[in-house]
Amino acid sequence: MAQDLLAAADKYALERLKVMCEEALCSQLSVENAVEIFTLADLHSAHQLKTQALDFINYHVSDILETSGWQSLVATYPELVAEAYGSLARVPCPLLGPPCKRLKKT
């Protein structure tokens, strides 16, 4: 129900209702629905929800890449895939440590 209410709140510029819907959807994020919520947030300019969904996708990327939702996103919204990929590239990887210095060529 929160998804439908978010669309209506965006359409009629009901900001408080929109925030309430975003909060409800954030609490429902799962591997199965994260891509759908990410797409919904983008379509309805729900910036906080979009950020939370993207963070969730980054944290669970290996599982989410295997979902049908991800495959659908790739086919339908390639610009969102590019945004998600760019976001993932900016996530620091603690296993790699600091970047290595390049050796000077002599």
TrEMBL record:
It holds the Pfam family BACK_BPM_SPOP. Its main location: nucleus. Residues 34-83 form the BPM/SPOP BACK domain. The keyword rRNA-binding does not apply. InterPro entries: BACK_BPM_SPOP. GO terms for cellular component: nucleus. Keywords: Nucleus, Ubl conjugation pathway. The keyword Nucleus applies. It is found in: Nucleus. PANTHER family: SPECKLE-TYPE POZ PROTEIN. Belongs to the Tdpoz family. This is Speckle-type POZ protein. The lineage of its organism: Eukaryota, Metazoa, Chordata, Craniata, Vertebrata.
